[in-house]
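Researcher: Here's a chain I'd like modeled. Treat it as a single chain, no partners, no ligands.
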Amino acid sequence: MVPKNQSKKAKYEESLVAFQKALEIFRKEDFAQAAKLFQEFIHKYNEEKEFVDRARIYLTICENRLHPPQVNLENFDDYYHYSVYLINRGDYEEALEYLKKANQEKPKEGKIYYLMADAFCLLGNYDECLKNLKKAIQLDDFFRILAQNERDFEPLWEDKKFKLILRLA
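Model: Modeled as a single isolated chain. Structure tokens:
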């Protein structure tokens, strides 16, 4: 705790510095150290309710990053939805692994090829992107419209092969 004779303003400023330090460590993705600092903050500055509430949120995020929940995937839909989550999180390589599993269960499902095209494009592997995009469109012409407006495909918008696949050339 903060000494009783310390002014309220000084306590607040001290808590602000401590919170900022924990936040800096969090932003560096040192989640173990950040969790420790947020725990210390919560115990030492419990009178600063607004900061303590935020510290608890950041502490929960740290704990989830240090000990990710176990995901139990069993079928096509599980693989598909988890892949979307991974792509949105920026884990493109891992998403591709789950998309391949989904593809094994339903090899004629266009949305799998479309997502694989998206992930490959985000990884900068444009040849694989175009191959999978072409397959997605062959299975369902709807993906032609989606691809025309997909921001993830922006690096390919002027590419001749991309335009040819979408029949924009």
